[in-house]
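Page header: ASSEMBLY MODEL / two components / 226 residues total.
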Amino acid sequence: DVKVTQSSRYLVKRTGEKVFLECVQDMDHENMFWYRQDPGLGLRLIYFSYDVKMKEKGDIPEGYSVSREKKERFSLILESASTNQTSMYLCASSLVDNRAYEQYFGPGTRLTVT
Amino acid sequence: GDSVTQMEGPVTLSEEAFLTINCTYTATGYPSLFWYVQYPGEGLQLLLKATKADDKGSNKGFEATYRKETTSFHLEKGSVQVSDSAVYFCASIKAAGNKLTFGGGTRVLVKP
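Prediction written out in full:
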């Protein structure tokens, strides 16, 4: 069974802390994505990666960075967490061919910044 | 840019009622269209898809038809169950693209 796992389900951090969110997929997918999910706004793409060490900004990259050193792992980094980054963060992966729409999602990390 | 608009929820229904969730899109060219579902405490999963005009996607009793003339992809189910309680997301992707554009999500609550 395909699987995308995220390092934490719930996380509480203080303003100004550096935060790492980890995502691992076991499907050998080329594409990996980070979204944030907020009520009424749906999912908004933060960053995505189409290969190791390759990344591309999504719609809301400000305040975030990413790292992809290995194909199966994609990390989202909040350099200095702020309260407006309190949200649900979802990781996803997909193949790079014409089934790129079939994204497999992790269970999400609910981050609270106080 | 591309966008997807879906009706706001929550939608509250009784078991065995008919469900419709409206979705419209704006896009250049001919995108593929999808419905994703998010059950409580879980990530999203693909529910159904349609890749060209007049295609009908179906799964688990849900259906949606790609209507180019009205740029719509409404989700329907004839008889909902309590287990259908979830958040439903409409999404689009450009041909040869790899980034989905999501609607805001519609929460559906089915009461016994």
